[in-house]
Amino acid sequence: MKNILKDLNKAFENKVRLGIMSALVVNDSLNFNTLKKLLGVTDGNLASHIKSLEKSEYIMVQKEFIDRKPNTKYSATEEGRDALVKHIKAIEQLLK
To answer: How far apart are CA 46 and CA 15, in angstroms?
Structure first.
């Protein structure tokens, strides 16, 4: 049991961070507003969770301008993808 629990990742204990990573793993990238609508969270809530995942180097941030308007896109890093897969496998093992 201890071995299974060690693979659970604290970064994904929060449902918003788990949702962000899940969305980014199945999409090449998503912008801030799309993530906000998809997860049904506020700007501030999403921003704080994105900052946490960025600090862990699980997501990459790309800022650009489209028609003079700022657009921020997010994508999962390889490290983030691997961490999420490991976390999900640990949950699956725990449920067995």
So the answer is: 11
Q: φ, ψ for residue 28 (rounded to 5)?
A: -60, -45
| CATH number for 64 | 1.10.10.10
pLDDT confidence tier of residue 4, bands split at 50, 70 and 90: low
Compute the mean pLDDT over every residue in the chain, rounded to the nearest whole number: 93
The parent domain of residue 21 ranges over 2-95
Query: Model pTM?
Result: 0.89
Side chain identity at 31, as an amino acid letter? N
Work out the number of other CB atoms within 10 angstroms of the CB of residue 45: 13
Report DSSP state, residue 28: S
